What we know:
Elements: E1 2-11, E2 14-24, E3 29-33, H1 40-47, E4 55-60, E5 63-64, H2 69-72, E6 75-78, H3 90-100, H4 106-116, H5 129-142, E7 147-151, H6 159-176, E8 179-184, H7 187-190, E9 196-201, E10 204-210, H8 211-217, E11 218-225, E12 238-245, E13 248-254, H9 257-265, E14 269-275, H10 279-287, H11 291-296
Parallel strand pairs: 3-8, 3-9, 6-7, 7-8
Antiparallel strand pairs: 1-2, 1-4, 4-5, 9-10, 11-13, 11-14, 12-13
Helix pairs in contact: 4-5
Amino acid sequence: MIKVENVCKRFDETEALKGVTIKIQRGSIFGIVGRNGAGKTTLLKILTGVYKADSGSVFCNGEPVFENPQVKSKIFFVPDNPYFFRNFSIYNMANFYKGIYNTWDSRHFENLLKIFNLPLKKRISKFSKGMQKQCAILFALSSRPELLVLDEPFDGLDPVIRQSVKKLLIEDVADRSASVIISSHNLRELEDFCDTIAILHEGKILLCSNIEELKLDTCKIQAVFKKNFLPESLNRFKVISYSKKSNIEVIIVKGNREEILDTLKDFEPVLLDILPLSLEEIFIYEMGGLKDELTQIMD
């Protein structure tokens, strides 16, 4: 498990992270979403021990990450702009990583080469950004780390390769119970394969939740009642939004669905519809006044 507690980081006058606290379970695909400049890269570099937090703590399976070679040997970090030795080909870099990670899987590496279909003799430094990103992901998956951390991995990838990478990450988690932390400036890019999403804005975590639980616990109700409806009757649940248009009550509420419906029956509903909510809608309702900020990571 990855445990981040009250992490802060400052660069000169800029507060990059402000008391970030998250927990990431083993076997999870954890997405961190935020617009450019939100602090995503800084957080990932602290998680992987590249940066040291000014305050707070980061533990991986109970061990501190920073300046801990034993822990870092089980982590592979794919930055937004991967670095490769200038004259190295794919096989040259593969041999380099094979010497670093004792978990390197040569058979898996050869199988992945068939999927990515990259030129083997050409120097990686001559590749396009998208091809270099594919190389980095190829080496990461071949290294079989316990924790795989990827910063904006889909930038520069075409739609077919994006789907292939997502499938490979899901298979890696399913086969080995590996953990994946992945950042993006676009929520829609992550919501279809992450199990947990955190929204980072101006160095703070605004929302962190399991996606399926969030969808199951949150519902939109449209109803017409015979009796006068009292919104306070739902106070034991979390009412995110309430409005009334003509005779129609519109309620966005979190809680046990059966208990909510039992409460509403007291007002003798003539019409009662439960409507599905997209993850985007749930986040917009949850974040209320920060709707503009959220809209920027939906586009």
